[in-house]
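tool_call: predict_structure(chain=1)
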Amino acid sequence: MRPEDVPLLFQELAREFADVTGMSVAATGSLARGDHRTGPDGDVVSNLDLIHLVGEDAYVPDVRAVVGRRMRRISDTFGIETTSVIARLPAFRLAGHAHYRISMRPEWFCDGLGLGPEAFDLPGHEDDPRAALAWMMQPVPYYLAKATVQDPPTNLAKARRAATRLADRFDLAGIRDDLDNLPRALRTLIAERGLTPLESTARYLDAPTHPAVAQRVRDAVFVESMGLPSADSMVVLLPSTSN
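tool_result:
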């Protein structure tokens, strides 16, 4: 897919989900932010990331089937890998400072839950800065843990970028000065600010070299942010080889 096709992609997503009920769908990630990556040939190499919000009582297997059918057509039409994440609405509302919330494109492809545009409003961190810090810290140990099992250079770079965003948002000189030892930087920040880290952060910092730490942290991140384990929440589709 070429960069100039991104607006067409979003238009097609709106058409694809126009008649869907029982969920609200929006884009998040680099394509939503407009900072997606391109390869040497100029094609977009970033994935398409979508959030599918459902009610607390939604039957997730049925949701996954609907998402899979719709996203298969999108993935094949545009030749792009798609990652859809199903999130229960109560978890979405609690995760106001989660990375995927901050990265969301502020429009619905469908709004079957009737959430309206105000659902994209992000809470300020002035009322509870320690909670905001804990949530915005979440991507750092997530990518550090992921780097233990998959593509260390890329995931370590993502961890450093997430740490830099955290430092810039809260003016944390200690994080900026210790990007080469992020576990130490996170422990210092938690101690100095009296933070209660999220479970995913605590799992990583308690055992950063454990063989299963990547899966443990991943599962905790999904339950915190989506209200579902990763195996239930994620629907990943590659474009068909015929295309």
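agent: The beta strands are 23-28, 48-54, 82-88, 110-111, 234-237. Proceeding to next step.
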